[in-house]
Amino acid sequence: MCVSATQSVLFHTIQSSKNRRSSKRSNFQVLRLTRRRCEEKLGKDIELKNLQLYLENQTIIEENEKLREKANILHQENLALLTEFQKKFPHLEQRK
């Protein structure tokens, strides 16, 4: 009976130490997986934000180009009106 009790205690000790090791290992794996998922989510969030900023930048560039074209047209009209004004009132130009 002493032998089997000793064997039982040894078996229990070995089993509990294996369980502790595996729980530490599984806990580490869970933490590593959780970290990896967080990094993947963060990476996807950054990619999404980058895409949004890229599209916003493209919209701003297009709007800027349209405004540049309008400014150029207004400048041409201004020059044409100034030329007409100078033709109608040539004596005003001589006073300067």
Summarize the structure.
Keywords: Coiled coil. This protein is mainly α.
Strands, helices and their partners?
Elements: H1 2-88, H2 90-95
Description:
The protein has two helices and no strands. The chain starts with a helix and ends with a helix. The longest helix has 87 residues, at 2-88. With 96 residues, it is an all-alpha fold. The mean pLDDT is 79. It has a domain at 39-89.
Features:
96 residues, 0% strand, mainly alpha, 97% helix
Distance between the termini: 127 Å
Q: What is the mean predicted local confidence, pLDDT?
A: 79
Q: What percentage of residues falls in helices of 4 or more residues?
A: over 70%
Q: Tell me, briefly, the overall form.
A: rod-shaped
| Largest β-sheet summary | none
Q: Please state the structural category.
A: mainly alpha
Integer-rounded radius of gyration: 40 Å
List low-confidence stretches.
Answer: none
- The ordered string of helix (H) and strand (E) elements is HH
Helix run count: 2
Strand content: under 5%
Number of strand elements: 0
